[in-house]
Specification:
Blueprint lengths: L19 E5 L9 H5 L5 E3 L11 E3 L10 H5 L5 E5 L3 H4 L5
Bound molecules: iron/sulfur cluster (2 copies).
One iron/sulfur cluster binds next to strand 1 and helix 2.
Length: 97
């Protein structure tokens, strides 16, 4: 049987973890917990805070694990969470003449 040659995926060294910034609009949250339950990376957890609606909104447990899949935004019925990508350091220092 011929020996199988395994190749690393092309460009695999260029793939970087995105630099995520998770935003929670706490007073808009109804405390359903969908974002916490369905986040594939366990970025969120329930906070002890009580918001304007009298419920516990989520809080960020570990933002560095976020892959910006935006699943939390998709499942939130009250549009209370969204995620953006922070520019990397090199991009922040680009001068625009
Ligand atoms: S964007 Fe994805 S990984 Fe990041 S917090 Fe939302 S569901 Fe979790
Ligand atoms: S899905 Fe939206 S409303 Fe539900 S807990 Fe998360 S932020 Fe709050």
């Amino acid at each position: 049987m011929p020996e199988r040659i395994r190749h690393a995926p092309l460009g695999n060294k260029k793939v970087k973890q995105p630099n995520a910034e998770v935003h929670i609009i706490t007073d808009q949250c109804k405390g359903c917990g969908f974002c916490i339950k369905f986040c594939p990376k366990k970025v969120l957890e329930e906070s002890q805070e009580i918001n304007a609606r009298g419920v516990h909104p989520p809080k960020i447990l570990d933002e560095s694990k976020c892959i910006i899949c935006s699943f939390c935004t998709a499942v939130c019925p009250d549009f209370a969470i969204f995620v953006v990508e922070k520019p990397c350091k090199e991009e922040r220092h680009i001068k625009h003449d």
